[in-house]
Amino acid sequence: MQFDMSRPDVVRAVNQRWLLKFWTQHLADCRVPRWQAIEAERLSSFQQNLSFLDVVPGANDAMRFLIRFHGETIRRAYGSPDGRGQYLDEVLTPGVCPTGVAPYEKAVREALPVYTILEVTDRQGRLVHAERLLLPFARDGETVDRILAAFEFICDDGAFDGHAIMTAGDGPALRLSALIEARA
Fold it and tell me: Beta strands of the chain (E only): which ranges?
C-alpha cells in the first residue's frame, strides 16, 4: 500500500483537524505524544467517532491491534456489536476493509499520523466518504503502543444511511492514503 507524504491540511474534517493539532502540540521532546495527554483531554464530544487500540507486538516485527473502545458511529458503520477485546484483524476482514491493518502498522512504524479516505455507498446507493485519521501515542513518548482512530463519514447529498455502511454494496474503495508531516 502506497502512502504519500502530505501536509496536515490534507485532513478535511474539522474534528480531525483539531485532533491532529492536539497531537502536534503534545509532541514536546518526544517521538510521539504521551498517551497521558489524551487521557487528560476531554474527548467526550468526539467519542462516538473514536476508537482506541493497543499495539500488541508479535514475533518478527509483526503487530496486532487490540480494540479497547469503539464509538457508536464506528460500531454502526461496521454493523457490528462492540469490538472491545477483539483484534482489529479479526474485525477488518478483506471484504470489509481492503486496506486492512496496513494504515495502522504504518502509523506505528513511522510514528506519524496516517489519513485515509475510503469511498462507500449506503443502502440507497449514496456515495459517502469515510475519512479515517490514525494518531500514534506512547506511554513513554518513544515506543508507539496506542492508536487513536478518528472517523468521519461525509456525504455530499447530506443525510445518508450509516448502518453497516462499511459492508454495504461492493465494499470500500481506497481513494487516498497519506502519511502526515505533523512535526512541530
Answer: 4-6, 50-57, 63-70, 114-121, 127-137, 146-154, 173-180
pLDDT tens digits, the chain, 184 residues: what are they? 899 999 999 999 999 999 999 999 998 889 999 988 776 666 777 889 999 999 999 888 889 999 999 899 988 888 777 788 899 888 776 666 657 789 999 999 999 999 999 999 988 889 999 999 999 999 999 999 999 999 999 999 889 999 888 877 667 888 999 999 976 4
Give which of 16, 40, 7 is closest to 135, Cα–Cα. Answer: 16
Fold observed for domain 4-180: Beta-Lactamase (3.30.450)
Give the Å distances, CA to CA, from 106 to 4, 25, 45, 101, 109.
Answer: 12, 21, 27, 9, 5
Is this structure's pTM higher than 0.90?
A: yes
As given in the structure block, the three cell numbers for residue 44 are: 467526550
What DSSP assignment string belongs to 12-41? -SHHHHHHHHHHHHT-TTSSS-BHHHHHHS
Answer whether 113's CB lies under 8 Å from 98's CB: no
Residue with cell 491491534: 65
Sign of the dihedral defined by the CA atoms of residues 166, 86, 76, 71, in that order: negative
